[in-house]
Amino acid sequence: MTDPERRDDPVLARGLTQPRRRDVLGLGGLAAAGLALAACSGGGTAPPARPVDAQNTVQKFWAAQKRHGHVNFANWPLYIDTGHKTLQEFTATTGITVSYAEVIQSAPSWVSKVSPIIHAGESIGYDLMVVTNGFWFSQLLTGSELIPLDQSLLPNFHKYAAAKFQHRSFDPGNTYSVPWASGTTGIAWNPKFIQTPVTSLNELWNPAYKGRVGMLADIQDLGNFGLLKLGITPETSTLADWQAAGKALTRQRDEGLVRGYYGQSYIDELTSGNTWISMAWSGDIFQQNLSSGTDLRFVIPDEGGTLWTDNMLIPRYAQNPVDAMMLMDWYYQPQIAAQLTESINYISAVPAAQPIIARAADKARGSSRQLLREVATSELVWPTPTDYRRLHNYPDVSGKLQAGYEAIFNPLIRA
């Protein structure tokens, strides 16, 4: 990665491990209905019987849709199985062809590109796109730029997705999204310099590591760690909590503990020993150890870490929404989820994929066998139940809240 924008964009970094006007039944009303539905769903619980007819509006929209035999899929680079065999199998099974494009280079630039098109009442040319939860997901949601999903078209998701991925604070009831892949933000350390296993967030504030601590420049992850350091749950945090977290992170910086605030380059700093301990993304540590033979360690600290998710979404005015939903659900079949995870090495929402990869490892030979064993057994790919209990989503930064959040945490990384 040599492009400066790509190297410094933390969302891209962890994703690299990879028109006609239309207004059926009033999509503006549909989006508003979906928002009402999400507000009523309470993290996956059943909504009230008649939430201002929101559910009926969504059902009417989907009842009018038909399968067209094609889907246009926008994703990040290198974020699918090698050779796109999962897409080929989808076409062979369903007859639906897929135009797959690696056109999302950064979340800000992508959303900035597609939002004006949607607000002009036009299709963006893609029926399915992958966007990470956080600022940009919230912007799409509050801007009524997404189509609420037809839950009846997601049988594999509801059957095979782990409970952690069916009850998410940023999209209750999976009203607008289902996960493509996920990762965690925790702490990594280089055992050449720190021999005692790290278990606590307090180690990022340890004076023994002055000038050797790496922090992430992603202010959503950074803010989460400030909150967790203070024992505050990110999902329910307030502006006052963010201010307290900002002060804790400012003290850490002003005491000279932090060597730098990094994008993807944190992995090089940690490997070289410029930093000894750092905030880190699980997929990076797994891949660095696998590809470079390093022995970097990773932990979800006792106080907690972040679970971030790259989500499949259907943009408003999509031309082939039924075909898009069929493709979304396709990836929740355990065999297909296993193929995807074998290639990208990020957390799958489908636990049943793990034994499939383990059996494939038993049958493989040579280097492939070792690779598959690593993927099948690594807690960086398959967090433990204890890890999941310690993992949190980002705070709600929708609407005007984002400006307040940015005002607190942006100065840290720009100082």
Helix fraction by DSSP (H/I, runs of at least 4): 40-55%
Instruction: Please trace the helix and strand order, writing H or E for each element.
Output: HHHHEHEHEHHHEEHHEHEHEEHHHHHEH
Number of helices: 19
Averaged pLDDT, please? Answer: 89
Distance between the termini: 25 Å
Number of strands: 10
**Sheet of most strands:** 10 strands, mixed
What general outline do the C-alpha atoms trace?
globular
Q: How much of the residues is beta strand, in percent?
A: 5-15%
Structural class designation: alpha/beta
Low-confidence stretches: 1-28, 41-52
Rg over C-alpha atoms, rounded to the nearest angstrom: 21 Å
Structural notes for this entry:
Helices cover 45% and strands 14% of the residues. The protein has 415 residues and is of the alpha/beta class. Strand 1 (70-75), helix 5 (85-94) and strand 2 (97-102) form a beta-alpha-beta unit. It starts with a helix and ends with a helix.
